[in-house]
């Protein structure tokens, strides 16, 4: 092997002497970490660290569940094995997805949106969809229970980016530019609320609105769309006694009327954070996970992290998601500056997805937002959620890789 030639190639890939282009006054920059690899290695390591932390904490939060009659037939490692299997499948799929050019994803985007709608219809059919805790959200596939709403998130990010590229010349016209996109989101919303899964609908709506805004939709039209969606959420809460009770419980969780009912999860989550103090009780030291805090390994995993790793552990998780979101959005801005609008809008849509869902989950766990059933991306137990998170981020890595190839004078 010619090591001298290889070293020359690696130095060239590092971009020595490369003048970065500037567009609209924004420099197109690349992360300084491991440029020779052709992709953002630090982003990969942050994702791996979150996956590893999630694996440890899911095991810690679920190890005592077999003591409950509901999970008596499970082994103590049941959720650990399933989570590990989901991560393994997700990493393999992610590796494959990084090999697919963005132009292929762009052509497939409308079909992915149609596939998401079909899957959301199928999951509502008795005998196909699986009911858990009164919600029909999963399709059993043997290896894992697949949740179509998770696929719908990546589908709407792809479709929204593709849609804005196709409608770029019509973005000032509401009926031609915005209304068809809103109709698609509305159809997804109706199907999701039939499950019911309002949390997933909120995330999908946020992705769609974000992509429309970043795609340059007229400000007045964007404000109108935002007001319509806010009004829709207010109406859904107003006409649903269950959701109204959740809001009242959130406002006063320690009231006797709610503490043992609608606010039960929230109060025990706050107790967990209180017990954690600065440095926590140590891994495995949580008491709230011992059948006091429901869904400790899924929606309220952060509360277990807070109890076992303390304020320091929670702060590191929040910082990791802040950095991850910021970096993904930067990759999107870089792609748009290189005239790769689909790739850029998709990456920014994923940034809105990851950052928005993490923000909601963290807010719910800390009592800053009303209780809502959303997992913490990359950390919480959930096979299809982890799978779709890894695939979405793998495509973002592909965006970054093609950006770097273009900046070196090559082809994406």
From TrEMBL:
Cellular compartments per GO CC: cell division site; plasma membrane
Chief location bin: membrane
Reaction(s) catalysed by this chain's protein: [GlcNAc-(1->4)-Mur2Ac(oyl-L-Ala-gamma-D-Glu-L-Lys-D-Ala-D-Ala)](n)-di-trans,octa-cis-undecaprenyl diphosphate + beta-D-GlcNAc-(1->4)-Mur2Ac(oyl-L-Ala-gamma-D-Glu-L-Lys-D-Ala-D-Ala)-di-trans,octa-cis-undecaprenyl diphosphate = [GlcNAc-(1->4)-Mur2Ac(oyl-L-Ala-gamma-D-Glu-L-Lys-D-Ala-D-Ala)](n+1)-di-trans,octa-cis-undecaprenyl diphosphate + di-trans,octa-cis-undecaprenyl diphosphate + H(+)
Cell compartment(s), UniProt: Cell inner membrane; Cell membrane
Coiled coil regions in record: none
Transmembrane segments: 42-65, 86-105, 111-129, 174-194, 200-217, 224-242, 300-324, 345-364, 376-399
Biological-process GO terms, alphabetical: cell wall organization; FtsZ-dependent cytokinesis; peptidoglycan biosynthetic process; regulation of cell shape
Pathway: Cell wall biogenesis; peptidoglycan biosynthesis
Record keywords: Cell cycle, Cell division, Cell inner membrane, Cell membrane, Cell shape, Cell wall biogenesis/degradation, Glycosyltransferase, Membrane, Peptidoglycan synthesis, Transferase, Transmembrane, Transmembrane helix
Molecular function in Gene Ontology: lipid-linked peptidoglycan transporter activity; peptidoglycan glycosyltransferase activity
EC number(s) given by UniProt: 2.4.99.28
Topology of this chain in the membrane: Multi-pass membrane protein
Pfam families: FTSW_RODA_SPOVE
Protein's job: Peptidoglycan polymerase that is essential for cell division.
Family, similarity comment: Belongs to the SEDS family. FtsW subfamily.
Name listed for the protein in its UniProt record: Probable peptidoglycan glycosyltransferase FtsW
Origin organism lineage: Bacteria, Pseudomonadati, Pseudomonadota, Betaproteobacteria, Burkholderiales
